[in-house]
Amino acid sequence: MPTTLSPPSALGLRWTDYPLMDAALAGLCVFSQVRRPEDLTAEHLQTFQRWAEDAYFSPEVTSWISVVFTSNFINYSFTPAKRREVLREILGSYQRPGLLGVPCAIFPELPAQQRVARDLMPMLMGRGPMNFYPDGQPGLPLSGQAITALQGLSLAAPLVSGRALVLDADDKQLLLDVVAEWQEPWLKRISLSRPGDEKKPIWAAARTRLMEAIRKVIEKQPSGRGPARLPFAGGATLYHLTNSGQGPDAAIYTLEQPALRFMELASQNFPGAWKPLFDSRRYEADKTKDSAFGFRNELDEALFSLPDEAPFFLRRYLMPPFTQALREAKAEARKGKSSKKTEKNAPPVIPLAGLWGITELFLMEVVGMEKARVEAVEALGQRLGRWIVAENDKRLFRELYEARGAGPLRHVLLKAMLEKSKGDAKSGTEDRDLITTKDEYLRIFTEAEEVTRADFTLARDLLKMRVIQYLHDARFFEENRDDPELQNTELPNEEGEK
User: Fold this and answer.
1) Which of 1, 3, 52, 377 is within CB 3.0–4.6 Å of 234 for a Cys-Cys bond?
2) Contact at 8 Å (CB) between 240 and 158?
């Protein structure tokens, strides 16, 4: 989502839609307790300068600088006085005029002061090479304000797993709020860093760090806002980068708005199912990582793959709790035949109550599935489940559960329709509803010209999940836990499936 550029302040600073500069400006704004770069004053930069002249020589920031700026002033061949002099020149660049005769590359309304290389602007080349620069002149022309402002990255981009964590958000409100969440513990870590100290446990898991910060931002919102509203618009992009001379590199992760909405609504509307599901994917930090900023949550990180990897997300994170109901029935049967106890490392039990609601949210918010199709899947699953329970038809359940392609699944449905119709005719019951209809089948599994949908496996797995939930609620698995038909029922491997 493009940001409307605002008029420059007296210093000439404003949002630029350039990720590194905007992150740096956010760091300065949070540090100075203002909400807009236009509100930054020379006094704010002077306060930052006084902090940096001390903090930049702590071991924590020295390591950070070697990753982000590779600046000359940390050269240990310099005397301490020389290093501080070079640093003061960089931090005070905004106080000197731009006399280069060309406009600044980031703030074109300002005159450039000097051409900079990777030691003053991350992810550029060194001072000598001229490749990829206009007119073959090495370096990028920047104003003094831009050179000083870029140092604000030290307030906004903490070191995570040896790389800087730089956030670019469509909504600058989100950028400011996340930087505020990171800045306080980051500055505390810097303030405790002293020469000669043992190396502190590192921060790790970049994507989890962003999601943790976003959750804290949401939790601080006033209560009473609409259930489907996030306090910010658009999505975010995370740059996990190193400007190190030994191998500059950047991993880029994109977080789309639908994934954020799904996360917020699932945690708000179905906390009883969402929390154990979320906790089951958390991995604590080992002793080399900070306990509060080193743990990783696999579910958090998988949100960055949405919506492109929606079928994989559903099968890996939402479907297992449903299939676990079947595994528990098998485990109970084994316990009855031997003295073995439940495996110590068995995954935690996640209640199914609310999990179908989370799945529906996922389908509508992330996949974009129309409500009528979701309702059709739910209705078909309920009718199938009711028939299986009524007839105690374990074979039908096994055939449904193990069906992979469209053909085998149609065969299972046709068989169920025929059996129910025959049963209804024999009993003379008034309940003569079909298991499914042509229109319902076409709505769920096919698209134009009755071609199998590209997301057939997604719809098929949804149907299985709904049937399992019905059977679980009806205690079908408990009542048939010793049955060999259920003992031999396994979810088929998806490898090689078209």
Assistant:
1) 1
2) no
